[in-house]
Amino acid sequence: MQRTAELWGLDADVGTLQQEGGRAYFDIETSRPEDGWRTSSRFFVFDHGAIVDHLAARPLATRLVQGFRTAAAVVMEGGAFGYFRHAWRFGLFFIFPFLLVGLGMAISLALATYPLWLGLGLWQLPIGIALGYLFFAKLFIPWSDRFHTLHLFSDWDMAVAVSRLDNAIVNDWIEKSAQAASQAFELQADEYVISSHSMGSSMAAQTIGLLLEREPDLLDGKRVVFVTLGGATLQCALLRSASVLRARVGAIARAKNVTWLEVQCLTDVISFYKSSVTALTGHPDAPQPRLVFLRIKNMLFAERYKRIKLDFLRVHRQYVLASDRRSNFDFGLMTAGPLAAVTFKRFSGEWAQDAELDYPEEAVNGEPH
Fold first, then answer.
1. What φ, ψ does residue 261 adopt, rounded to 5°?
2. SS3 labels along the chain
3. Which of 131, 213, 267, 333 is the most buried (most CB within 10 A)?
4. Cβ-Cβ contacts under 8 Å for 102 (sequence gap 6 or more)
5. What are φ and ψ of residue 359, in 5° steps?
């Protein structure tokens, strides 16, 4: 946020993280004294990191076996076919960690059985087994961490759990998040922004969809913007078992007070670029999300972009990280700046380059939002 403030000529004060009634939040105050405006934003944090940590804490053998079972489930449920049909690069992202680990296992097996295929004495078999184990556990797995391989195994475990809603930890997270979000909507505000990134978009859709099922009038009279960053909701929604998720996507799309912005980038391979999540989840008659396209190359200095452009997970995270240059999207500006988040559906690169920043009148009312 401090980087955003410097970039856009704002003053920003970021508060400390608070815990209250099971809710985590912090406040941000932004202003520009010479223009006489001030914006107060309260961020409620819905972090599913504990679920990822739980999955990552399992023994290596369990993570590997469960990971391949999950991959098979994604294939059997039609997810893999959908990925390659609608976003072939996402399909490659799906198979990448499993192919990589499969290659490591094949090399380990070859090492473990070298006495057999070289026609050597069986007394060397224990040596081969030890070599195979050492290669896989002590060399290959640490090396593969640079590609976040086991993290991706856990990510797919979680994707299937979010689709099926058959995991007590995931279901409990959604339930508690729905309760906390309901309390947050009781607070007065000019605008309510629900922002989510990557797998968080499926979690957000499950949570807000559940709220709308229970409290159909919850958003009446409120201006709500549902922002999904990275266009990855279909990771879960394309699985056949994700019927509840697809229904909740439709409920959000049809909610009369909700504006849905889907922020996408061509160079982000972990996204369904130019795909409509509502149409592909069985709601072609519902309002489609407004697609907002960004170019990460335009957000960063050339040398910084050159360093990260081949790291697909780092590129995928840029939506919520600080920018070096003004462009048509800035996460901090959207969520804590003077502009209403809904403004970003028409936010232009030319407008962004205007050093004077001619803020729309509706966003400069001197009142907190």
1. -110, 125
2. CHHHHHHHCCEEEECCCEEECCEEEEEEEEEEHHHCEEEEEEEEECCCHHHHHHHHCCCHHHHHHHHHHHHHHHHHCCHHHHHHHHCHHHHHHHHHHHHHHHHHHHHHHHHHCHHHHCCCCHHHHHHHHHHHHHHHHHHHHHHHHHHCHHHHHHHHHHHHHHHHCCCHHHHHHHHHHHHHHHHHHCCCCCCEEEEEECHHHHHHHHHHHHHHHHCCCCCCCCCEEEEEECCCCHHHHCCCCCHHHHHHHHHHHHCCCEEEEEEEECCCCCCCCCCCHHHHCCCCCCCCCEEEEECHHHHCCHHHHHHHCCCHHHHHHHHHCCCCCCCCCCHHHHHHCCCCHHHHHCCCHHHHCCCCCCCCHHHCCCCCC
3. 333
4. none
5. -65, 140
Q: Which residue has the higher pLDDT, 33 or 222?
A: 222
Cα 70 to Cα 39, 96, 140, 160: the distances in Å are 45, 14, 21, 7
What is residue 182's predicted lDDT score, i.e. its pLDDT?
A: 94
Structure confidence by residue, pLDDT tens digits, 243-294: 999 999 999 999 989 999 999 998 999 999 999 899 999 999 999 999 999 8
Would you say residue 17 has pLDDT above 70? yes
Residues facing residue 259 across a β-bridge: 225
- Do the beta carbons of residue 63 and residue 84 sit within 8 Å? no
pTM: 0.89
Asked if residues 23 and 179 have their Cβ atoms less than 8 Å apart, the reply is no
**Integer Cα distance of 329 and 352 in angstroms:** 9
Confidence of residue 347 (pLDDT cuts 50, 70, 90): low
The confidence score (pLDDT) of residue 204 equals: 96
